[in-house]
Design a protein that fits this description.
The protein has 325 residues and is of the alpha/beta class. The strands form 4 sheets. It has a 7-stranded parallel β-sheet with strand order 5-2-1-9-10-13-14, with helices on both faces. Helix 1 packs parallel to helix 2, helix 1 packs across helix 13 and helix 4 crosses helix 5. It contains 13 helices and 14 strands. Bound molecules: ligand FO1. The site of ligand FO1 has 16 residues, from helix 2 and helix 6.
């Protein structure tokens, strides 16, 4: 059995994880145990709101793997209602621009209760995951609370969720911060999973606010770098544009161009102190393959659009084959 660890966050991460589960399941014969994989999830998007703890990236991935996610919006539960949210707005509680669905609130209440009773986020996620056969183990990047903050060019500082959902990333960021992250440790199991992995995948998630915080947790960058298997990344940029979300704004704030080449160089070649052995790029970006190779990373041109279950599985299959699995 190939042991795979994925670093992931957001919608791109959850679609890729769905594809990976399908690709791995396709390899298992009837007699063999189902192949599982580990997902190290960004928790920088997490926040307290109206007295409950939200974990947007964890929930996106759990809901997607459980098949109960809202595929139109890209977040929350399918078929959710908003009765409690309306009432919260009447009370002027929470954020008027941030919707908490009724079913989704059930998750937040359960999580908050378990946290208040003394469970760690890792234990809470394990308990939540047991409700559905997810086919993967989710590990938060850390059990500590380290929110992603946006420092604007005008000096204001706000939680990433406010910048993302209220302002739709329209306020110019000077930088992103995770206050206190230097003092935290990876969640239990994260370093062990990376050390045992035959293959580490970096999902096509936002490199700055999804993958960035994971790699900023002390020990994780080094563990990926020294993984025994290959480290394969999937470009979140296709044809010089972001596939979804507002990653281009985040990239330009840290001085990285919105291109498959620039993001590859941002992660760096393992041979040069960075992370990547291989970098999956779209056919639209094939012209940058030679430059990516010059950085010391092997470019692999393959279709990257994850339009549905079949194209997501094909992309994950390409990532597995790139590493010889
Ligand atoms: N995104 C929005 O654009 N608007 C919302 O009202 C909103 C509510 C929300 C509630 C719970 C949750 O887990 C996620 C939610 N999101 C919402 C998505 C979230 O803001 C981001 O897309 C992710 O954090 C980025 O990965």
């Amino acid at each position: 059995m190939t042991r795979v660890v994925v670093l992931a966050g957001g919608v791109g991460g959850s679609r890729f994880c769905l594809g990976l589960r399908a690709a791995l399941e396709g390899r298992v014969d009837a007699a063999a145990p189902a192949s599982g994989f580990d997902i190290v999830v960004n928790t920088g998007d997490d926040l307290w709101l109206s007295g409950v703890r939200l974990q947007p990236d964890v929930d996106s991935i759990v809901y997607a793997l459980a098949g109960v996610n809202d595929t139109e919006r890209g977040w929350g539960r399918a078929g959710d209602s908003e009765r409690v949210n309306s009432e919260l707005q009447e009370w002027r509680a929470g954020w008027p621009w941030f919707t908490l669905g009724d079913l989704d609130l059930g998750t937040h209440l359960a999580r908050t209760g378990w946290l208040r009773e003394g469970s760690t986020p890792t234990q809470v996620i394990e308990r939540m995951s047991a409700r559905w056969p997810l086919g993967a183990r989710l590990l938060p990047m850390t059990d500590a609370e380290v929110d992603t903050r946006v420092v604007l060019e005008d000096g204001r500082v706000m939680h990433f969720q406010e910048w993302w959902t209220r302002h739709r990333a329209a306020l110019r960021p000077a930088r992103f911060e995770n206050p206190g992250i230097d003092a935290v440790v990876p969640a239990p199991g994260v370093l062990e999973a990376l050390a045992a992995a035959d293959l580490v995948l970096i999902a096509p998630s936002n490199p700055v606010v999804s993958i960035g915080p994971i790699l900023a947790v002390p020990g994780i960058h080094d563990a990926v770098r020294s993984a025994r298997g290959r480290v394969v990344g999937v470009s979140p940029i296709i044809g010089g544009r972001v596939v979804r979300g507002m990653a281009d704004v985040c990239l330009s704030a840290i001085g990285v161009e919105t291109s498959a080449l620039a993001v590859a160089a941002h992660y760096g070649a393992r041979s040069g102190g960075g992370l990547l052995d291989d970098w999956l790029i779209a056919e639209e970006d094939a012209a940058s393959a030679a430059d990516i190779a010059r950085v010391g990373i092997r470019p692999v041109v393959t279709p990257l659009w994850m339009r549905d279950a079949a194209t997501s599985a094909a992309l994950a299959e390409a990532a597995l084959q790139t590493a010889g699995h």
